[in-house]
């Protein structure tokens, strides 16, 4: 048997020695499997050219290329996935009569290492015995054989002492050794510092007990490279629960307790309502409670970027393996997928494969799937087939709890209850906005050395206290009503008297009176130049509909009055 470094007999295709044969074979194999796969799976493999006995009547003996793998894992991988590619490369590079075999390298069995104290005491004796036992044999054998055995013994001794830290073994090392030391369990670590809350995570905070200073965190062997520090701070325990997010919180709890039930789960609502925090909390619980090693949690933009990189880098199979072999998939901001047809198609196939085997799927966006135009009918229907829950803007009680929590964590001076109540009542429902207000008050405390008054807070933070989402105008209400009831633009200002238009028009007048400071005459004039008495009558009619639970609209666009108002308000908050 001759390795690629030893000269040998002539070969087809102009090869002059065995090293040229192996080099030509490697180049042909690299062209077949790709440079990236060749570097991963063949960098630790030795190729040996083996010549058999010459067949009578032929000029050259038959040949065989032997792929020598360091371990059984690598050998099985080559035999199952790359044997056909190696045979084709051998035939094209070295002749059709060349065969290919996979062989596991024979490695000497090493004695288990002893403690250093015992090893130090017996090193001299062992070395002497070994020398005595080896000397007679070395004198009777060739010097090259002795040197080779000495080099092998030196490598074995170094390997028994030098170890790589646990958890840092590379894929190259796995192929070389045939084992994966990364799969050994990691010891649990104890966190001694109290978790902090970032400004970006403010919308989903919670009030937790400060008595517990240490928390045992379960080990997670795989954390997506997209996960940021902000997401890692969003846990289930520090989420602020309230009436505004009770439905979504209950659905996430069900997904944690019974993964795969009512999957896919879709959370939708305005920005700053706690959707991202809930996704991060669910991902953490799936890793901790159910020991899921491959929980993939990322945003829709990150999924799209990874997909584009996979297409451009010819590594689409690796991309699909990463997502379709996951234990759970959680994606935020699904509205980012709009009009990205190739990404939508890839995501749809991924969801279908994971759903078939009952893997948990959780998504979040600013709108419900069937209200996101450009998402595609198939993907929208697949997402809506599970469980769709709305997360509303933070109500006053939840805002008060959130402000109290952040004030306790970030401010040196306690806040008066009156200040908490007043700021919670005038601030918007975006939790991230509340985080900015608390940071401002903490700065004013350091500047003045005391708790600032409300006048001082308004002086420096009027832009935060005034900010309550998208400005609501008569035109904005008109567009939202037309969109909810699937009407043409400006149809509410027309003179049509059909019920499919008059009822939504009266609902728009009611909302305009409730949500803006416009007078009845201004409202009537905006909706087709009608009088103020028409606007007053519309306001009274809608109140009667609410009391009676009557529906509004006609045909497929018909909705109960409560549901129509809820959808319109949500659309106004999200823009």
From TrEMBL:
Compositional bias per record (Low complexity), positions renumbered to this chain? 117-130
Query: Which terms are listed as keywords in the entry?
Result: ATP-binding, Cytoplasm, DNA replication, DNA-binding, Lipid-binding, Nucleotide-binding
InterPro entries, per this entry? AAA+_ATPase (IPR003593), Chromosome_initiator_DnaA-like (IPR020591), DnaA_C (IPR013159), DnaA_dom (IPR013317), DnaA_N_sf (IPR038454), P-loop_NTPase (IPR027417), Trp_repressor/repl_initiator (IPR010921)
SMART domains in UniProt: AAA, Bac_DnaA_C
**Transmembrane helix found in the keyword field:** no
Q: Where is the composition biased (Polar residues)?
A: 207-232
Q: Domain AAA+ ATPase spans what residues?
A: 261-395
Q: Name one Pfam family in it.
A: Bac_DnaA_C
Q: Where is this region: Disordered?
A: 113-232
Q: Does the keyword DNA-binding apply?
A: yes
Spans of biased composition, class Basic and acidic residues?
A: 131-140
Ranges for the Chromosomal replication initiator DnaA C-terminal domain? 473-542
> Per the similarity annotation, which family is this?
Belongs to the DnaA family.
Q: What is the purpose of this protein?
A: Plays an essential role in the initiation and regulation of chromosomal replication. ATP-DnaA binds to the origin of replication (oriC) to initiate formation of the DNA replication initiation complex once per cell cycle. Binds the DnaA box (a 9 base pair repeat at the origin) and separates the double-stranded (ds)DNA. Forms a right-handed helical filament on oriC DNA; dsDNA binds to the exterior of the filament while single-stranded (ss)DNA is stabiized in the filament's interior.
Q: What is this protein called?
A: Chromosomal replication initiator protein DnaA
Species name for this entry? Stieleria magnilauensis
């Amino acid at each position: 048997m001759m390795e690629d470094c030893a000269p040998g007999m002539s070969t087809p295709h102009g090869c002059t020695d065995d090293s040229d044969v192996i080099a030509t074979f490697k180049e042909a194999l690299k062209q077949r499997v790709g440079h990236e796969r060749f570097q991963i799976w063949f960098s630790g493999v030795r190729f040996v050219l083996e010549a058999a006995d010459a067949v009578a009547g032929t000029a050259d003996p038959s040949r065989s290329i032997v792929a020598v793998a360091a371990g059984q894992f690598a050998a099985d991988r080559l035999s199952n996935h790359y044997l056909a590619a190696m045979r084709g490369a051998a035939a094209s590079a070295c002749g059709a009569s060349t065969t290919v075999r996979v062989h596991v390298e024979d490695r000497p069995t090493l004695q288990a290492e002893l403690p250093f104290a015992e090893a130090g005491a017996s090193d001299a004796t062992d070395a002497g015995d070994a020398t005595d036992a080896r000397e007679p044999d070395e004198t009777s054998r060739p010097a090259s054989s002795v040197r080779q055995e000495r080099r092998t013994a030196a490598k074995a001794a170094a390997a028994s002492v030098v170890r790589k830290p646990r958890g840092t073994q590379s894929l190259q090392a796995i192929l070389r050794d045939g084992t994966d030391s990364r799969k050994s369990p990691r010891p649990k670590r104890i966190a001694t510092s109290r978790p902090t809350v970032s400004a970006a995570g403010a919308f989903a905070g919670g009030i937790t007990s400060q008595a517990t200073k240490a928390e045992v965190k379960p080990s997670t062997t795989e954390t997506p490279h997209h996960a940021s520090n902000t997401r890692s701070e969003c846990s289930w325990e520090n989420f602020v629960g309230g009436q505004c997010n009770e439905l979504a919180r209950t659905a996430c709890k069900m997904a944690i307790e019974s993964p795969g039930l009512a999957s896919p789960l879709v959370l939708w609502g305005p920005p700053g309502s706690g959707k991202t925090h809930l996704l991060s909390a669910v991902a953490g619980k799936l890793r901790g409670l159910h020991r899921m090693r491959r929980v993939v949690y990322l945003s829709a933009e990150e999924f799209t970027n990874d997909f584009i990189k996979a297409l451009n880098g010819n590594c689409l199979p690796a991309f699909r393996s990463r997502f379709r072999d996951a234990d759970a998939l959680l994606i935020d901001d699904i509205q980012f997928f709009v009009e990205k047809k190739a990404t939508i198609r890839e995501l749809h196939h991924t969801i279908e494969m994971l759903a078939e085997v009952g893997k948990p799927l959780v998504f979040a966006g600013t709108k419900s799937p069937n209200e996101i135009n450009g998402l595609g009918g198939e993907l929208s229907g697949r997402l809506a087939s599970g469980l769709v829950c709305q997360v509303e803007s933070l109500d006053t009680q939840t805002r008060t709890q959130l402000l109290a929590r952040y004030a306790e964590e970030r401010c040196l001076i306690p806040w008066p209850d009156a200040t908490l109540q007043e700021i919670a009542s005038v601030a918007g429902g975006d939790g991230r906005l509340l985080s900015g207000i608390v940071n401002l008050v903490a700065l004013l405390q350091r500047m003045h050395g005391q708790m600032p008054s409300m006048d001082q807070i308004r002086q420096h933070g009027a832009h935060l206290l005034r900010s309550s989402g998208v400005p609501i105008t008569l035109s904005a209400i008109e567009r939202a009503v037309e969109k909810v009831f699937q009407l043409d633009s400006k149809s509410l200002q027309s003179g049509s008297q059909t019920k499919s238009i008059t009822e939504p028009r009266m609902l728009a007048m009611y909302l305009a009176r409730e949500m803006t400071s416009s007078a009845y005459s201004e409202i009537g004039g905006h909706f087709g130049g009608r009088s103020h008495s028409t606007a007053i009558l519309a306001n009274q009619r809608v109140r009667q509909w609410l009391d009676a639970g009557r529906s509004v609209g006609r045909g497929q666009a018909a909705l109960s009055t409560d549901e129509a108002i809820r959808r319109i308000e949500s659309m106004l908050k999200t823009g």
